[in-house]
């Protein structure tokens, strides 16, 4: 069924069903042995059907990054290592797919997923997660085949950006009882991603949720108007409207 699975760069009903099965294994509690086999199976899927993750819509790449990053915060060191290496494989495969030019797709989806995980997962960004970032960096530095390309420095830049987001989030945690300061920090983070519409939207959505929680509905509405303008501008540039 390879031809059917590859139709429309892998964005077809059959591939969606296959991918959902893989995703289900990551979303449900599994034994350590089962998880290791799921990670191996995912490597095979990424290797055989790269266009599914690196071409067209980003939804499958996004969902996979999100689930893998959750395991980068696992209490089991062996699972953290396996998850970190799988995420590195996703990034490295993306780099190879573009003819060793960049891994922009995975880079962006990792940052977006980290931003979402901060709100969804307790303790993300702690020592365990930091260790996983170090493993990813080490993988890039020790990969001899791409040693003389931009890849190792790009990976370092990605992990640095993740740490910046985590530091900003820690500051937000300190000021969680000060709504105005909290929103100011959110705004600064959103502003820092002015050149990346998807990330700017992620943080504006987060700001809106804080405003709604505090009963500041006018401010929340302004955030959503800004998001709508951002989406409209993006679609106009793409010639879609």
UniProtKB/TrEMBL annotation:
Signal sequence, renumbered to the chain: none
InterPro entries: ARM-type_fold, DOCK, DOCK_C_lobe_A, DOCKER_dom, DOCKER_Lobe_A
One GO term of the biological process aspect: small GTPase-mediated signal transduction
Keyword Oxidoreductase: no
Keywords for the protein's UniProt record, in alphabetical order: Guanine-nucleotide releasing factor
Residue ranges constituting the DOCKER domain according to the UniProt record: 191-241
Similarity comment: Belongs to the DOCK family.
Protein name: DOCK9 protein
Classification of source organism: Eukaryota, Metazoa, Chordata, Craniata, Vertebrata
Gene this protein is translated from: Dock9_0
